[in-house]
């Protein structure tokens, strides 16, 4: 009986993508710290998977144990009635995407991207502003967690202090930045923007699992 063909999705490796041969997949993950990959039975499954979060396709026993370090009193535990935002940036392609999740249930609230030739800081900034606009529209006072001090500072100044050069490929990103800065300038919000304490709480729940 012929061996059933498999499709290997590599989210994080020397090169990300879909591979039809195990040796090709192995070459991308061998020697790569914390490589993220999984096999699928069909190409459509693999194509859907690579557009989503790696952690959605692994079982609980495959996941790393959470951080057990006891947080200081002034840090405490995260407020579960909140949203968390994060961004992912592919160092090989320059593609960026960002998302927001409701902490209590893990439900994804929004997902944007991928965008060409962007940066992680830009993604983190856009994620916060997107979260603020979402909460403003829904008249919600929920706080927002982010693990990016840079993005928090940009939001506070209402300006994305990026050194990224404008190109035809990343023009949509700059248009989003202008919209985000304009939203911050024209709207008032009282939602708290809080630092996600990864050292004590584990990975940001909105993380894409591609580190």
Automatic annotation (TrEMBL):
Cofactor note (record): Binds 2 metal ions per subunit. Manganese or magnesium.
UniProt cross-references to PROSITE patterns, sorted A to Z: RNASE_H_1 (PS50879)
A single Gene Ontology CC term: cytoplasm
Compartmental location: Cytoplasm
Xref: InterPro entries: Ribosomal_bL9/RNase_H1_N, RNase_H1_N, RNase_H1_N_sf, RNase_H_bac, RNaseH-like_sf, RNaseH_domain, RNaseH_sf
Residues at which Mg(2+) 2 binds: 124, 147
UniProt GO molecular function: metal ion binding; nucleic acid binding; RNA-DNA hybrid ribonuclease activity
Domain RNase H type-1: from-to ranges: 77-211
Protein family per UniProt: Belongs to the RNase H family.
Functional summary from the UniProt entry: Endonuclease that specifically degrades the RNA of RNA-DNA hybrids.
The protein's name in its UniProt record: Ribonuclease H
Species of provenance: Arundinibacter roseus
